[in-house]
Backbone:
C-alpha cells in the first residue's frame, strides 16, 4: 500500500508545499497578515495538518490486532518491503511501542505479528515527516519564522487504543474538559473552515494562480506557466 500511495503522497505534498510557500511569501509583505492578503496562514495550515494526518493514521487500524496477525500468517499482510527481510515467520519477534494500560501510557514489547498495523503506520509516519521537512525547508528559504510539526500518534485518534482518550499534539494526556476548551487551538474551527471555503473561487486565466497558492516550480512535462492545459473549443 505504501508503494502504491507514493504518487498520491507526492501530489499532496507538492500541492501543500505551494500553499505553504505562498503563506511564507505573504508573511514578508507589509503588515505580514496572511489572511488579510487572501492567503492561508501557517497556523491554520498546521491545524489542517493535525486533522488530516491523524485521520490518515486511523486507516491503518488498531495498534495491537489479532486480525493483523492472522492476515500475516495467511500471507495476506506483510511489513513494508517484506521481500527485503530474510525471516518471514515473525516467531519470537517483538515491536517496542506505547500502549494504554489502566488509563496510563506504558512502553512495552508487543508480539510483532500483533503489532503489524503499527509497524506499517511507523513507516507511513516516516514518509509524512520527510514531506513536512520539505515544507519547513521552503518556509526557511522564504525567511519566515515558523515550523510545521507532525502531532503525536496519540492525538485526535478515532480508531485503535487511543480512541476515546485525549492527548495534546505533543502527546500529553489531558482530560475531556481541557480537550474541549483547547480543541480550537489544534484543529480547524468553524471559522477556519468558513475562511478557507471563502477562498475557493475559480481562477481560469492561463498563467494566473489563486492568491493563496504559489505557482508550481515547473509545468507538467516542462510546459510553460501560461500553457493552456484544458481547451473547451
Residues:
Amino acid at each position: 500500500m505504501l508503494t502504491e500511495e507514493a504518487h498520491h503522497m507526492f501530489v499532496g505534498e507538492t500541492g501543500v508545499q505551494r500553499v505553504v510557500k505562498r503563506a511564507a511569501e505573504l508573511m514578508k509583505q507589509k503588515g505580514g497578515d496572511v489572511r488579510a492578503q487572501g492567503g492561508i496562514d501557517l497556523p491554520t495550515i498546521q491545524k489542517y495538518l493535525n486533522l488530516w494526518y491523524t485521520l490518515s493514521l486511523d486507516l491503518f487500524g488498531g495498534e495491537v490486532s489479532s486480525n493483523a496477525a492472522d492476515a500475516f500468517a495467511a500471507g495476506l499482510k506483510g511489513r513494508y518491503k517484506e521481500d527485503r527481510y530474510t525471516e518471514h515467520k515473525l516467531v519470537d519477534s517483538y515491536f517496542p511501542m506505547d500502549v494504554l494500560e489502566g488509563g496510563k501510557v506504558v512502553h512495552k514489547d508487543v508480539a510483532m505479528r500483533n503489532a503489524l498495523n503499527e509497524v506499517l503506520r511507523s513507516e507511513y509516519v516516516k514518509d509524512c515527516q520527510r514531506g513536512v521537512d520539505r515544507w519547513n525547508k521552503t518556509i526557511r528559504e522564504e525567511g519566515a519564522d515558523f515550523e510545521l510539526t507532525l502531532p503525536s500518534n496519540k492525538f485526535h485518534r478515532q480508531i485503535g487504543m487511543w480512541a476515546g482518550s485525549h492527548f495534546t499534539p505533543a502527546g500529553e494526556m489531558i482530560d475531556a474538559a481541557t480537550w474541549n476548551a483547547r480543541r480550537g487551538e489544534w484543529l480547524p474551527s468553524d471559522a477556519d473552515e468558513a475562511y478557507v471555503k471563502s477562498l475557493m473561487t475559480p481562477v481560469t486565466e492561463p498563467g494566473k494562480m489563486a492568491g493563496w497558492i504559489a505557482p508550481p516550480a515547473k509545468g507538467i512535462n516542462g510546459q510553460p506557466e501560461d500553457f493552456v492545459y484544458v481547451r473547451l473549443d
In short: The chain has a mean pLDDT of 93. Residues 6-221 form a domain with the Ribonucleotide Reductase, subunit A fold (CATH 1.10.620.20). The first helix runs from residue 6 to 27.
